[in-house]
Design goal:
binds adenosine-5'-triphosphate; NH(3)-dependent NAD(+) synthetase; ATP-binding; 6% strand; 274 residues; binds magnesium ion; globular; 4 strands; binds nicotinic acid adenine dinucleotide
Length: 274
Amino acid sequence: MRARQKTIIDELGVRPEIDPAGEVERRVQFLADYLSATGARGYVLGISGGLDSTLAGRLAQTAVERLRESGGEAVFVAVRLPYNVQHDEEDAAAAVEFVAADETLTYNVAPGVDGFEEEYRRTVGVPMTDFTKGNTKARLRMVAQYAVAGDRGLLVIGTDHAAESVTGFFTKFGDGAADILPLSGLNKRQNRQLLQHLGASERLWAKTPTADLLDENAGRADEDELGLTYEHIDDFLEGREVPDEVAEKIEDRWWRTRHKRTTPVMIDETWWRA
Ligand SMILES: Nc1ncnc2c1ncn2[C@@H]1O[C@H](COP(=O)(O)OP(=O)(O)OC[C@H]2O[C@@H]([n+]3cccc(C(=O)O)c3)[C@H](O)[C@@H]2O)[C@@H](O)[C@H]1O
Ligand SMILES: Nc1ncnc2c1ncn2[C@@H]1O[C@H](COP(=O)(O)OP(=O)(O)OP(=O)(O)O)[C@@H](O)[C@H]1O
Ligand SMILES: [Mg+2]
């Protein structure tokens, strides 16, 4: 295995093989234990219709039910956060049904994003690029989830996992901002395995991953934007051999996005000088 590949696998905590039942169990228990230890009243999470939030949502609902069964109080609030109407509305509805949260809210981020974009245009003098508007959508989704969490004593779940973390493929302080990461250490195919194990329909576990942030290219596949396949990223994270140019691309993205996996740089820190 390549030296840097091993460093990355160790840093992200990926296991080459998993037992889906055991992984579901330890992640549900992690979510339940964290509520017990902190005294928080439950969780909130955006449900997009994509497989990561479907999985994390189902784990969260199972965790709060487990706590209630043992006499505790906990609630899970799922939040649909469309920018007006999603192109994959039916997938989002199917995900909400499968997650079966205690409560489901729908919070349209379009008024916030559009108001923000308008003020940006007035202030800066040029329109915001579609790319930056996409990151703004991700950040306002974060703001909405923290508003619900703050008012009700809940914690915000993030869906970051190893296959996104390694490439820094998330919006810094957007979907990258959360209180707890129940999918950490999993690659994409392991997320799928867990969702299958939980009995989700094929439509949910086989869904093509998309950040779905762009007005001008709705539902653009992550793999298209990354120029990498999840098959390759997953193989790399399981310590398998991938073509050299693929490994180099993954390692380069991991290196360049280190700032996203740390707290803001302080004066005595040196990691960034390496
Ligand atoms: N070396 C450095 N040290 C400290 N900070 C640094 C930095 N380089 C950039 N930055 C900061 O980071 C910012 C860039 O990061 P960021 O704002 O995240 O922007 P960026 O990484 O350019 O874009 C986010 C990417 O994540 C993808 N995404 C987003 C959300 C969800 C998903 C998904 O998979 O569903 C994917 C999205 O499609 C896009 O490709 C810069 O504007 C700068 O402020
Ligand atoms: N339209 C949306 N509605 C609600 N939450 C969203 C929406 N888009 C993104 N999110 C939140 O941002 C997170 C990051 O998006 P991301 O695309 O990585 O995950 P996903 O959509 O759940 O799965 P996939 O990566 O397979 O598309 C989601 O898990 C979800 O919590
Ligand atoms: Mg998605």
